[in-house]
Write a structure and sequence with these properties.
five-stranded antiparallel sheet, 5 strands, about 20% strand, alpha+beta, about 20% helix
């Protein structure tokens, strides 16, 4: 799997070829505001390495997954939502509405959220 896919929008953002509203970045990940936010705070966290989805993570990518999760807390702090709470969502595949096939977590917060995050029968969740 290539480190950078020249046809991938998120690879271009990670490389600085396409502008984005960057909230956090380090050597492993880039976090930027979603251009179609679903909440007051909606930030995408992507690895710099091109990985199509969670289903494409390989054994050697476990550190990348850890960097994404670690960046969530740092990004939430920078966005001012760490104390009030946030949700980290990964959509994997067409049925989950993944539209850009470069693994990314949706960091969502800044407002009270409900559960479940999909249509249907409501269930109590703890």
């Amino acid at each position: 799997m290539p480190f950078h896919d020249p046809d991938c929008l998120f690879c271009k953002i990670a490389a600085g070829e396409v502008p984005a509203d960057i909230v956090y970045s380090d050597d492993h990940v880039v976090a930027f505001r979603d251009i179609q936010p679903v909440a007051d705070a909606h930030i995408l966290i992507i690895p710099r390495k091109h990985i199509a989805s969670l289903s494409h993570l390989e054994e050697g990518d476990l550190d990348i997954a850890g960097h994404i999760l670690s960046a969530a807390g740092k990004t939430a702090e920078k966005a001012g939502i760490a104390a009030s709470g946030y949700r980290l969502v990964f959509n994997t595949g067409p049925d989950a509405l993944q539209s850009v096939f470069h693994i990314h977590g949706h960091l969502i917060g800044g407002q009270k959220m409900g559960w479940p995050p999909f249509p249907g029968t409501r269930v109590q969740h703890g």
